[in-house]
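Run log // design_07
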């Protein structure tokens, strides 16, 4: 043993390495299993049956070889894997054209083993439970945000709501995909009010959609996004050029305040920046203790609110903050049924 080494520390480190290796193996097995083609709504046999966990026909007739020979090993064009600071892993598979019923698959696995599979074909996305393959939801991104689509539910399939776990894993995927934004596409997160509040008046069913869309599609949904991007970049460059800040946090705060001033001067009732609300959703002073600070809101059409979340540091959007953003947005723009979250990172 090396002098001065703590045996408990070494054991903990070894356990961490083994856990990471085990998760890598699970991810590879899951990827291999999902390379086989199946119907968009195809379930898996319930646990406890001889073929439990395997893909089966939609009519429920199980078969021991149901998952053995429907795909090819060459249908994945590329793959990339990202490990987030909290231990969540995101595996992205890009599919060769015409090989599957979707063109991108994102498998998100939390440290506790919970996972969700996001299968995207154009602007339509299916979310599956990573353990059972059961379809949890399907939606299409439109000019009004994410709209639900119907999908088949076999009689024996367990009822698994989208719930907090799905939102949290969607937020992790949103963080990873947002880091890959380009001049031609932007990652958006579409949510319904159902994800954060029970039975919102006039609301539709629970919906989650996350992924990159073209700038044209984003313009249709959030008409002022180009204006917001231009203003953000211009202000950030101006603040950066002055050098009058002492830390990244101070830089971010100064950028936010300068943008808030510009938005206020626009006097646009559908665009609001730097709102602070207390826990009772009553407007409070900027930066007041216990208040929620919102970066920028745009009121869209037909019950849709666009939320611009400025990214000037390393903080990741989590469920708690997303819920606060949604609640504050709905408090300021009553009647909001859908939210579109866009991460805005200044280009210096």
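design_07 sequence
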């Amino acid at each position: 043993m090396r002098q001065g080494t703590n045996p408990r520390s070494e054991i903990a480190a070894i356990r961490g390495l083994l856990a990471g290796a085990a998760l890598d193996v699970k991810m590879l097995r899951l990827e291999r299993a999902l390379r086989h083609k199946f119907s968009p709504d195809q379930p898996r046999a319930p646990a406890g049956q001889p073929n439990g966990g395997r893909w089966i026909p939609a009519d429920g007739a199980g078969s021991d070889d149901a998952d053995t020979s429907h795909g090819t090993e060459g249908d994945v064009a590329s793959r990339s894997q990202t490990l987030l600071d909290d231990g969540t892993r995101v595996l992205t598979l890009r599919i060769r054209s015409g090989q599957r019923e979707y063109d991108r698959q994102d498998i998100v696995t939390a440290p506790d083993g919970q996972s969700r599979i996001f299968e995207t074909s154009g602007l339509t996305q299916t979310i599956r439970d990573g353990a059972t393959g059961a379809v949890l939801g399907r939606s299409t991104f439109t000019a009004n945000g994410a709209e639900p689509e119907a999908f088949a539910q076999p009689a024996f399939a367990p009822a698994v709501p989208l719930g907090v776990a799905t939102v949290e894993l969607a937020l992790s995927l949103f963080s990873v995909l947002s880091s890959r934004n380009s001049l031609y596409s932007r990652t958006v997160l579409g949510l319904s009010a159902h994800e954060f509040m029970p039975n919102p008046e006039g609301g539709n069913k629970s919906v989650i959609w996350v992924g990159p869309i073209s700038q044209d599609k984003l313009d249709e949904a959030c008409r002022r996004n180009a204006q917001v991007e231009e203003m953000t970049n211009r202000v950030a460059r101006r603040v950066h050029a002055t050098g009058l800040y002492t830390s990244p946090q101070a830089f971010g705060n100064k950028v936010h305040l300068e943008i808030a001033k510009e938005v206020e001067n626009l006097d646009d009732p559908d665009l609001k920046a730097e709102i602070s609300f207390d826990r009772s959703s009553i407007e409070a002073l900027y930066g007041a203790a216990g208040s929620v600070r919102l970066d920028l809101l745009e009121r869209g059409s037909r019950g849709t609110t666009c939320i611009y979340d400025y990214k000037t540091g390393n903080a990741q959007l989590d469920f708690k903050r997303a819920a606060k953003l949604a609640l504050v947005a709905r408090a300021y723009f009553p009647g909001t049924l859908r939210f579109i979250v866009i991460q805005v990172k200044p280009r210096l």
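Helices lie at 7-34, 163-178, 215-221, 225-242, 248-266, 319-332.
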